[in-house]
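Researcher: Please generate the 3D structure of the following complex. Treat every line as part of one assembly.
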Amino acid sequence: DAKTTQPPSMDCAEGRAANLPCNHSTISGNEYVYWYRQIHSQGPQYIIHGLKNNETNEMASLIITEDRKSSTLILPHATLRDTAVYYCIVWSVGKLIFGQGTELSVKP
Amino acid sequence: NAGVTQTPKFRVLKTGQSMTLLCAQDMNHEYMYWYRQDPGMGLRLIHYSVGEGTTAKGEVPDGYNVSRLKKQNFLLGLESAAPSQTSVYFCASSYPPHEQFFGPGTRLTVL
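Model: Done. Output below.
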């Protein structure tokens, strides 16, 4: 299973874009990149996923490099409610393998 | 739709006791999963199921058993609870490769 590496913590000013990086250098060609977040002790919440192309939905954008070895999650206008732990996950054979994630703190 | 529900929400056990956690989903999802989360850690996959009557081991399966007799239910059993199994347990379901939907969690303490 491909492993992901994320910075343990990041800060972002409210209203600014939050750019969360993730390295997944051992990713295979048929493995998806997923992003989830976990607020306090709630169950994780799906954000977005992609295979090769960049993706955008109402919550965020996902930029995947051409060699697929890294990706960036972009929250375009971060709010205080976006403070959470963000997990970058490589989906393989129906399983999500969570890493430590990035603790994002959005500050006023 | 209730989504994914977990029963119970909280439980305290003594070492050596047994219990079963119930996960139910009403989204007709094929895949179901059990995770545990220890303080300050990410989620770790215990067992998962790719369909009714099937189960498979995840990262940390020791000390747990599971059953998927009905498509909508996924049971996690602890036969002889140990303090190391004190954790928050999350259940999830999905229709891959789409998103997983998570339940609210069960907080288990083993004394």
